[in-house]
Amino acid sequence: MKAKVAGTVFLIGSLFYLIGEAISATFFNAPLIDTYLFHTISELGIPNGNSPLFWLMNSAFILSGLTLCFGNFYKFKDFIIKHKSAFYILTLISALGVIIVGLIHGGNPLTSGYHTIGAIMAILGGNILLVLISRSMNEFEIYQKITLILGIIGLIAFWIMFFIMGNQFMPLFERLSVYPLILWCFLTGYFLNTKNLNSWKLT
Known about the structure:
203 residues; mainly alpha
């Protein structure tokens, strides 16, 4: 039952984020494709005329953080057999970072520094968490391999984004660094609702 509950929370949180971002981007003051390519996710959460649904994007951030924290501590921790302390710490760092991003928006010189810190906590912490998870479960099978690949993609995208700040395509790499954790939440929710993670093996 705990697996079903955690799985459902993971699914709802990840889908709410993806749908919330898509709706916010649709109403952003730019064509939809341009919004995804040339405007950061944080811009969708700034309360101004460009993003009339800023509250929806910020709600998605906050719910994502709460989802990760609840799902990991309520049930997913049972699948972690190594590096448990690091798992708990990285979960808290990542979840708190996403929540900070949702509560403290960018674009304000007085608060943008806190927003940036929250984004780094969420993105860097979240992708390191995925790599850690992939190496901390009982058997390194398909689920763990997918988790590792997602974490590596996120870290590479974050590294590229770090060096192209100000480039028009920076928002694209921002999304590539954010989506791995969201996709992992969806994947984890699916398998918690359908089967034991450690039973999904190559053989």
